[in-house]
Amino acid sequence: MSWNIVGHEWAVDQLRHSILADSDAHAYIFSGPPGIGKAAMALHMAMALNCERSPGDPCQECRACRLIMRGSHPDVRIAGMASQAAAIKADEAARQKELKIATIREWQHDISLRPYEGRRRVLILHDAERLNEESSNAMLKTLEEPPDYATIILVSNSTDLLPTIVSRCRVLRLRPLPRRQVAEALVSRNIIADDAELLAAWSGGRVGWAIAAAAQPETITARQEQLTALVELGIHSHNRGIAFRWAEQRAKEYRGGEQETVFAWLDLWQGWWRDVLLVAAGCHESVVNIDRREDLVHTANNHPISVIHAFMRRISTTAQQLRENGNPQLVLENLLLHMPKDGRGIAA
Ligand SMILES: [Zn+2]
Fold it and tell me: How far is the CA of 11 from the centre of ligand 1 (A)?
């Protein structure tokens, strides 16, 4: 397979055959959870369309392939929340939730010009789920009458786009890969087996996430420290001082523009309790936090399943209340007040 993409073989096959048969679409949506490999797929599609040696099967070596891989091909335009953020201050960027119409206009600015040196002009838009109504409408015009030589690829973390947009695109939904396949991809990139197993388990089948995390060893340490903090919160659930300090820190992050960090904490905690539930049900194979089996077994033995379920629901409600602009400190303190009580802290 010349696309050098991990997994998603059906999608590569489909795209490759459509290019070779000259039946490729003018507009695509690549959707799927963050880090699943959509960005790599979009870049490889741009290469497959423009490769100077073997269209359909990008050589990854010719000038066009290399420029596209580096993000500097004159006929491949890429935009998204990251490019929008690059133009403004970091704290302002953190508050931005939508793709602005100015970003879309600039991105599609020269679509009416013929390709400069490639065969096709390829426009890739990341974070398409963040198009607001105004920018969606600006996009529609282009989708309705794309020039013959243009391919538009919308990369989206969800399929929740305007139906008028979806109906004009060929949609490819990328799904999580098997854990084994992610681990093998990491090992083939010289990641040691234990780390590969761990990252593959944590990745939930999102190979792009796993590869990015492997390149930053501090990701592993940071996540382990966060989980330790959460497990300790449970152990010391009777100690309101510890709990409130945690809530205070998270609330500070939230108000300081780091909302996503706080949601990541809640996701991590939700994942932890999902594991506890799996262990309680005897499904050890599916556990994500494979480096914490002992803690998981202990926690599962200490709490009735109904209590675990109730707390998981509460974590979801907390995230929702934050999204609805609830007071972060109060909302998080309330969550901690309802933590399942672990006997270990009192005994110590
Ligand atoms: Zn090439």
Answer: 20
Structural domain total, the chain: 2
What is the residue range of 290's domain?
216-347
- Residue 57 Cα to ligand 1 midpoint, Å, equals 8
Domain boundary among 119, 138, 173: 173
pTM here is 0.83
Asked if 287 contacts 279 with a C-beta cutoff of 8 angstroms, the reply is yes
What count of residues does the chain have? Answer: 348
Tell me, yes or no, whether 32 and 167 share the same domain. Answer: yes
- Full DSSP string of 163-219: HHHHTTSEEEE--PPPHHHHHHHHHTTT--HHHHHHHHHHHTT-HHHHHHHHT-HHH
Regarding whether 148 and 233 lie in a shared domain, the answer is no
Ligand 1 center to residue 68 CA distance, Å? Answer: 9
163: domain CATH number is 3.40.50.300
Residue 50 CA to ligand 1 center (angstroms) comes to 7
- Dist CA 169 CA 130 (whole Å): 17
The tens-digit pLDDT sequence of the chain (348 residues) is 578 899 999 999 999 999 999 999 999 999 999 999 999 999 999 999 999 999 899 999 999 999 999 999 999 999 999 999 988 888 788 778 899 999 999 998 888 888 988 889 999 999 999 999 899 998 898 898 889 999 999 999 988 888 999 999 999 999 999 999 999 999 999 999 999 999 999 999 999 999 999 999 888 899 999 999 998 888 887 788 888 899 999 999 999 888 889 999 999 999 999 999 999 999 998 999 999 999 999 999 999 999 999 999 999 999 999 999 999 999 999 999 999 876 554 433
State whether 141 and 265 are in the same domain.
no
Same domain flag for 74 and 137: yes
Rounded distance from Cα 3 to ligand 1 centre (Å) = 11
Whether 236 and 304 map to the same domain: the answer is yes
Distance 60 CA to ligand 1 centre (A): 5
Q: Report whether 220 contacts 199 (CB < 8 A).
A: yes
